[in-house]
Amino acid sequence: MNIYDIAAEAKTSISTVSRVLNKKENVNPEIRRRVEEVLKKYDYKPSAIARGMVSKTMKSIAILTIDVRVTHYARMIYVIEQEFSNRGYNVTVCNPGGAIAECERYFKILAAKQVDGIVLIGSIFNQLANYPQIVSLIKEIPVVLANGYVDYPNFYSVLVDDTKAIRRVVDYLFDRGHKDLVYVFDIETDSGRAKCQGFLEGMKLKDVPDPQSRVFTAQYGLEGGMDVADEIINSKIPFTGVVCGEDITAIGIMKELKKRGIRVPEDVVVTGCNNSPESRICEPELTTLDNKPELLGGMCAQLLQNTIEKKETATDVAIQPELIVRESA
Q1: What is the DSSP secondary structure assignment for residue 286, as one 8-state letter?
Q2: What is the pLDDT of residue 53?
Q3: CB–CB of 128/74 below 8 Å?
């Protein structure tokens, strides 16, 4: 049985049946009763596609992220999924990884499914600006980037001021007497580069000569942190503080410093970024930047919802991270 059969048996129009199915109020009570009796008689359950054709919305969104296993991303995804599920949307989570070319395959699928909106999590998606042929696949679908920016119509952003946040860390450490700082750059993304830029700007504002020489590159993760700690020590560059762009790398650095007999925070202070659960369970607890992933996810959800509903909304929104002072600095 389809919507036409229901309309015929209830002696009304398909548009009226549609209004009953979508729980609209502008239906004559007697006609509503007749339609509901037919629906109950045949245990009719409308398909999402049928509802979408009538309501002009599939009540469906997609979230694409670099790696769903990353805690920071998972916290955002959780909030966005909850927000849209509570509004009756079906939410699909996609994991294209760090390869922009993979987006083409996902975008083709999502366009065919006629999703109402897309959220992109990870500054790697900024590279889409260089792939107009991929963006054209979803040109009719509103897209919100979490901490990213693409200058195309129908693209919106919720940004985190990573540069200013790291400058604040530099100010904090200088105020505590730590003028010999080094920075560990471990993720080659726009966000990672913005954090490194914040360190360089902060050091220049403190009149530190050649701050670039105090930037070390590491592999992201615990092992990368341990390896770069050795490199920093062997460089003979004097340092009493290490500023990191990621918590897990900072924890690896603390682990290696302790192994080498260097105490944290007595001899060297260490800071991270993301306020991850790991920052609380390490010893000592890590001073870190909270870039507020739950707030970021919530703002992405609200921005996308406003866009889908064609409400007036800003195209770009900014979040200021908060320095969480713990035992390591």
Answers
A1: P
A2: 47
A3: no
* Contact (CB, 8 A) for 156 and 111: no
How much is the pTM?
0.77
Do residues 249 and 220 lie in contact, with contact meaning Cβ atoms separated by under 8 Å?
A: yes
- Half-sphere exposure at residue 318, Cβ-oriented, CA atoms within 13 angstroms: 6
pLDDT over 50 (residue 176): yes
SS3 65: strand
Q: Which residues lie below 8 Å from residue 50, measured CB to CB, with a gap of 6+? A: 2, 3
Do 72 and 287 meet the contact criterion of CB atoms below 8 Å apart?
A: no
How far from 228 is each of 29, 138, 207, 253, 254, CA to CA, in Å?
A: 73, 41, 25, 7, 11
Tens digit of each residue's pLDDT (9 = 90 or more) over 49-77: 455 545 455 689 999 998 888 888 999 99
**Would you state the structure tokens that stand for residue 313, as one six-digit string?**
């909304």
Res. 19 pLDDT band, cuts 50 70 90 = confident
Residues 6+ apart with CB under 8 A from 4: 14
Helix (H, G, I), strand (E, B) or coil at 225: helix
**DSSP secondary structure of 110-139:** HHHHT-SEEEEESGGGGGGGG-HHHHGGGT
Selection from 166, 165, 146 nearest residue 156 by Cα: 146
Residue recorded with tokens 């990884």 = 97
Strands across the sheet containing 181-185:
215-217, 181-185, 241-244, 269-273, 287-290, 322-324
Which residue, among 141, 103, 142, has the nearest Cα to 122 in the 3D structure?
103
